[in-house]
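Sequence in, structure out. Go.
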Amino acid sequence: MRILPFEGHNLCVTLRQPDPAPGAEPERGFVVAVLAQGVDADRELDELRELARTAGVEPVGDLVQRAARPQPRTYVGKGKLVELKEAFGRSGAESLLVDDELSPVQQRELENALQARVIDRTQLILDIFAQHAVTAEGKLQVELAQLEYNLPRMRGLWQHLERLGGGLGTRGPGESQLETDRRLARRRISVLRARLRGLERQRATRRKSRRRSETPVIALAGYTNAGKSTLLNALTGADVSVRDRLFETLDPTTRGFEVDGRKYLLTDTVGFIRRLPHQLVEGFAATLEETLVADLVLHVVDGSASDVELDEMRAAVEDVLAEIGVTDVPVELVLNKLDLVDPLRRRRLANRYPGALQVSAASGEGLDELRERIASKFGERFESVRMLLPYDEGGRLAELYALGAPIQERIDQADGVFVRAHLPRRELPRFAPYLLAEAREEPARSAK
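Output:
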């Protein structure tokens, strides 16, 4: 991870940095947290350590203060701050990683006390997002989130120039430049939002095309590193990047697969995490909206996690889904990583989450049952029909193909083209004149 220094009059933002070269010495970070009594410190800090390693920082020490809430000015108490300075110096750390979102005052006080860079949880996650963003939209979303995070912190960045002014913090070159930078930042935020709205309109157009074809859209949602991308690859045969690190997937990826001749679209979305920064929820609203407009959401969880972790991860995902308005979309719970779970644990999971599917995207176990479950949700959307389309109405055949309706059989006969297909129910009136009534079949059933 590399937080670029404040240069000239530009905002301090985190830019995409290449992954550390093999054998390169990672940056050393010291972890600190203020936790209430009874909170498991190891579990809390393990996630921050994993975030740090994903960002290219190796944790070399940690310190925990037990308190109901952080100190408003220094984050930790005065005595703990002295202890932190000593432990930080002994560890040889280069930066302090804080398991909270700091106020500008808290960040400045800690930096002054340690004479080192201080990175809070939000900034750390933003840095990871900046490293992993690939598409133009993903990069725009990250930049928007970074600007919104940095905007209220700009005053501290210009504090050294404010001392040159003659007024009470309201005059002088520092304040003038501060206002200029704020104005530039707000203007850039407006530009980014406008660009993202344009990209959202493009995505809305693609969604309308899917709707016309009645192709069901299934969104994968879940905690980061739950195995969503691996599941996408296993179901669709795609080759989406899969690595054992947090936030590997930022940009929505949609691939298709078929069950009994019917096509389905599966979309992988950004992973969630406890206390996901609100800047990212807002900045990635367009990406997260893929879950909002889906016909079905598969909530993928890591079945190999402990009961406590599993409940926390489920709650974190459900909170974000509720925040973005996913309330009317049906949700199916999928317990992944079954290959890492012993038979006793599997039975306990079945009792704890009745109705949830247990699968292993890595080994393929349970995927046929998952496909059947998906197909059963949409069986009534299509009807299996037989049609005879006259040659002088060839445009109707083109319309049928444009719908994306699964066509099982086509035979060019003397009097026209015989077609057997799964037709979206709402399209039945349009093709009614060509239906072979005596050969009509029962509505399509779920996959077997």
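Check: The two ends are 49 Å apart (CA to CA). Residues 115 and 200 are 43 Å apart (CA to CA).
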